[in-house]
Amino acid sequence: SATVSIYGDLEVNNTITSTNHNVKDKLIKLGQDSIVTDEDLGIIFTRGNGTDATNIANKGFIWDADANTFALVGCNTEDGTTSGNITINEYESLTVSSIILSSINSNSNSDITLDSAQDIILDAAGGNIYFTDDETTIGTFTNSSDDFVIQSNVSDKDIIFKGNDNGSTITALTLDMSAAGAATFGSTITA
């Protein structure tokens, strides 16, 4: 093996082939001298079919210019030569031990699922958990001096407890907020 030292710029207009390459730089910058804001940037990971085909199941970590966000994507046939926006075939999963977020938003018009092998813990240091619909707060769970407060936030809207009685949905209890919380039970009260 030999060492080649280059002091200055190296411009390559084709492919650099390297095996198990180590990079000592602490920062890697993509898109040097670019002035556009509507083109994707990122790293593409080549994936094949395990036998005789390549560039058919590629994955990417990109800055998605259209969505203005980072994304982990499936970009099946992207070969790294696209100028502009790559074709995103699907969004990929990310496995981490913990993640710090300021918000969670779905950009795919689909549900968000929280699925845990153990418990799901909601820990709000501010003492409140808000339930909102289209930016309107409809309900709140509050820690008030260690009292657990359940509140309906919309004026005169009830708190309703429903259940499944032999396959049928029943209303077990309605707390009428327009009548100071008057309680209507769906059946008898058993002492």
Quick structural summary:
With 191 residues, the chain is mainly beta. Helices cover 0% and strands 31% of the residues.
Describe the structure.
The protein is mainly β. The protein is built from no helices and 10 strands. The chain has strands spanning 41-45, 59-64, 69-74, 90-91, 128-133, 136-144, 147-152, 159-165, 168-176, 182-185. A 4-stranded antiparallel sheet has the order 1-2-3-4, with no helix packed on it. Strands 5-6-7 form a 3-stranded antiparallel sheet, with no helix packed on it. The N and C termini lie far apart (87 Å). The model has no long low-confidence stretch (mean pLDDT 91).
Q: Stretches where pLDDT falls below 50 for ≥5 residues?
A: none
Our estimate of the beta-strand percent is: 25-35%
Distance between the termini: 87 Å
Protein structure class: mainly beta
Rounded average pLDDT: 91
Strand sequence of the main sheet, in spatial order? 1-2-3-4
Number of helices: 0
Which descriptor suits the 3D outline? elongated
What order do the SSEs take from the amino end to the carboxyl end, as H and E?
EEEEEEEEEE
Radius of gyration: 27 Å
Can you count the beta strands? 10
Helicity, in percent?
A: under 10%
Largest sheet entry = 4 strands, antiparallel
